[in-house]
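Inputs:
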Amino acid sequence: MPTNTRFDALCIGNAICDVFSHVEEDFLRAEELAKGSMRLIDTDEAVRLFGKMGQTVRISGGSAGNTAAGIASLGGAPAFFGKVAEDELGDSYAHDMRGTGVHYETARLKNDLPTARSMILITPDGERTMNTYLGACIKFGPEDVDPDVVAAAAVTYMEGYLWDPEEAKKAFLKSADIAHSHGHRVAITLSDSFCVDRYRSEFIGLLKDGVVDLMFANEHELKALYQTADLDTAISAARESGALTALTLGENGAMAISREETVQVAAEKVDNVVDLTGAGDLFASGVLFGLARNYDLKSAAELGCLCASNVISHVGARPERPLKQAAEQGGFEI
Amino acid sequence: MPTNTRFDALCIGNAICDVFSHVEEDFLRAEELAKGSMRLIDTDEAVRLFGKMGQTVRISGGSAGNTAAGIASLGGAPAFFGKVAEDELGDSYAHDMRGTGVHYETARLKNDLPTARSMILITPDGERTMNTYLGACIKFGPEDVDPDVVAAAAVTYMEGYLWDPEEAKKAFLKSADIAHSHGHRVAITLSDSFCVDRYRSEFIGLLKDGVVDLMFANEHELKALYQTADLDTAISAARESGALTALTLGENGAMAISREETVQVAAEKVDNVVDLTGAGDLFASGVLFGLARNYDLKSAAELGCLCASNVISHVGARPERPLKQAAEQGGFEI
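Outputs:
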């Protein structure tokens, strides 16, 4: 860890409880849901859809929260900002964060909206279709940014999804400003291609203006950002974006792209893909941990692929067993 | 299904939310917990232990509840009696029951104890050690027994665990009485060997007096019941108990034992045992479904083994994908 930081990474995002249910393909058709998408839903729709779901599994989630939990599981020291309510789901969320070793002190929301939940429908191919009720997350704002924590983190990593709740965007920009003023890096994940469609010009502006130094994206998101169907065109645009791009390519592994260099790494082989939820989030855990510990770019990307392969072999976007063990077995010195 | 019943089985038990966490062997040693046991804990201990657990996965559970969910997953028509509170865990529990197709109408507990939860610690060998806070379950009693539902079920299946909360035992005996008065069968699961130690003489009395016709047990429980270290001795005692015994033998499959016949079936092969929670519960699902649908004893036991093998390949004691599909692929006509 760099000597002037307490945290390998500060992750900031919507604090969401994931409610998983396995469904058949025709469930998505009947509900007219685009497979692999994340849509925002209101209370009425949340109640209606929940009523149609069968057996559920409930696991703390949220993209940046998953990334923080992954860094902790690697043996790192992450922090997290995100808002839950004073309710049972919020209790579980806070427990899971602290229980895995994440520094998490964001003030809970009282007598107001409930903790956010995302109803995630898993189809037999392992794909997940997310229906998110933001609840307490829309009350997360710049007042929740603790400058001391930002100052103490080697990198501040934030979700594109923070553009959805109005005040969260201000928290993003405030955090980026503090991080840079202390000479630390700022990272964004593009979150999903639908999110990119909603905020394309703003995200491109963040890269161009140097608000973010490091961008995490998958193939669909990068193509959406640059409005092209051709991956090479998107990669060329990313190379000129001003930021370092960490690009996940599913079973084809990952790339890291900057003006100076391009590295490509293979995916880990996974025998039994159960649930793709969290693959990108855990890739980010490995990369952020690696960069904070001064790994070279290729090794950091390889650690990201190892973390991603681990999480897709079970339901949920959080590691079940310590990633530190898996990483050490994979030849990494943690 | 027999023409005079609406339900393949009525399952009665403690309605519990399972809170899973993966731990290393030394966690059990530090906490002085006997691996594979279920112990009852109070509120203070529940809070203390929860504070020591890392990342959790939350899934509706409870032994008889799991069995009911398994029957529904096979395409059967189960009912369930068990008490949860008017809280978020209770909402999830009721949702999961009804969402999978279980008839579940037990009155919720209001302004009183919270919904029960069992903190289940999974060690790397897939074994689970359970720490159960009974909460609202101790308010389940004979007034919660709907006679019309008992009368409409081919078999009434109840947990030995019902002997733990005082009033639940009365509900057990009332239900057995109603079932027999309608010519239906009554079944018990011995639940666990510690439970057998607590209530041995009463359980033996239930068999001798004909209160139960069918007993589910694993090897440890049957040996505990007859206070012998020798399985053959225990089996001989079971043969003379007056009841039909359905005995699970882990990776050695299962047996069905009565005065008239003994059948033995092999276990299904499981490549990756993740979590043994629910193996016995789901074995019961298969057997009860099979008997209600007039399978012969051997076929019913084989269906039980198939259901058990399905549930141990993932975390949680409820089927993730429909058991009906797995059973049909296994050659059963559902």
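Remarks. Chain A touches chain B at residues 21-22, 50-51, 53-60, 69, 73, 87-89, 92, 95-96, 99-101, 124, 272, 274, 314-316, 318-321 (CB under 8 Å). The first strand of chain A starts at residue 9 and ends at 12.
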